[in-house]
Amino acid sequence: MNLILLGPPGAGKGTQAQELVSKRGLVQLSTGDMLRAAVKAGTDIGKKAKAVMDAGQLVSDDIVIGIIAERIDQPDCKDGFILDGFPRTLKQAAALEELLAQKGKSLDVVIEIKVDDEVLVDRVSGRYTCAKCGAGYHDRNKKPKVEGVCDVCGSTEFTRRADDNAETVRNRLMAYYRETAPLIGFYFAKGKLHSVDGMAPIEEVTRQIDEVLG
Ligand code: AP5
Ligand code: ZN
Q1: Which one, 29, 100, 138, 147, has the greatest CB density within 10 A?
Q2: Does the CB atom of residue 53 touch ligand 1 within 6 A?
Q3: Are 195 and 114 in contact (CB under 8 A)?
Q4: 141 confidence band (pLDDT: 50, 70, 90)
Q5: 72-126 residue pLDDT tens
Q6: Catalytic pick from 142, 161, 170, 192?
Q7: Which residue's alpha carbon is at the smallest distance from atom 34 of ligand 1?
Q8: Which three-class secondary structure string do you get for the chain?
Q9: Residue 145 to residue 72: CA distance in whole angstroms
Q10: Which residue intervals make up region (NMP) (predicted)?
Q11: Average pLDDT, whole number, for the chain?
């Protein structure tokens, strides 16, 4: 099964993708994670992307389409993948269709996670992740079971993203409404869109997604 998780920054795409990875054995393809890895590694793509990401703007279509084209060709994607943060523009959506068609694959479903704007800023600014395994947490909504210790790997080191500050989050939201929100209509018209209530607690959102996926 190949699916897209669509929603604004902080909607819970990464959180729900991790659930789907552990429950259904799908692969999570997060362009945000891939770009952050490129920035960390200091590659040419990373150098180009860093300032754009820090400003909360979108990295160029050509760069992210190139990254995804290469990634979905890897053997671990053959049984299905979750696109988290891609596509983000109509151009990326068109490129994805072409890529999938070339490889004889198709898109099964697009899940839109709907969340009120005022909640998003709080979610993003309270977020942190395990520095070792990348498990996601939140200052209030999703604390580790033992304070300061990652539930998944036991590490005691955590990091916060450079673009998770209130000002950059607002720019990211603007980019979402300008460039990404039109994809909701695009996928609705194709009969692929299902919406879930991302204001509900994490477990309830997971349940709604399970219901959509069957
Ligand atoms: P990216 O990494 O994709 O960031 P984003 O879309 O802004 O999404 P986030 O990761 O911030 O949010 P999320 O929906 O995954 O929420 P999460 O589950 O963490 O992109 C970063 C940048 O890279 C972009 O700005 C751009 O520059 C560039 N980029 C990436 N892809 C690109 C593309 N395709 N084209 C161009 N540029 C691209 O949840 C947030 C917090 O809320 C967590 O702490 C979580 O615990 C908590 N939470 C989650 N769900 C709930 C719930 N139901 N109730 C309460 N709390 C919850
Ligand atoms: Zn961990």
Answers
A1: 29
A2: yes
A3: yes
A4: confident
A5: 999 999 889 999 999 999 999 999 999 999 999 999 999 999 999 989 998 998 9
A6: 161
A7: 86
A8: CEEEEECCCCCCHHHHHHHHHHHHCCEEEEHHHHHHHHHHHCCHHHHHHHHHHHCCCCCCHHHHHHHHHHHCCCHHHCCCEEEECCCCCHHHHHHHHHHHHHCCCCCCEEEEEECCHHHHHHHHHCEEEECCCCCEEECCCECCCECCECCCCCCCCEECCCCCCHHHHHHHHHHHHHHHCHHHHHHHHCCCEEEEECCCCHHHHHHHHHHHHC
A9: 34
A10: 30-59
A11: 95
Residue 124, CA distances (Å) to 24, 28, 79, 137, 164 in order: 26, 20, 31, 10, 6
> 46: which 2 tokens?
């990373």
User: How many CB atoms within 10 Å of residue 192?
Assistant: 16
Per-residue pLDDT of 126-135, as tens digits, reads: 999 999 998 9
Distance, CA of 10 to CA of 168 (rounded, Å): 12
Ligand 1 atom showing the smallest separation from residue 33 Cα: 2
Instruction: Copy the structure tokens of residue 175.
Output: 């980019």
Q: Is the dihedral of CA 113, 119, 124, 130 positive or negative?
A: negative
Residue in the block written with tokens 């959102």: 205
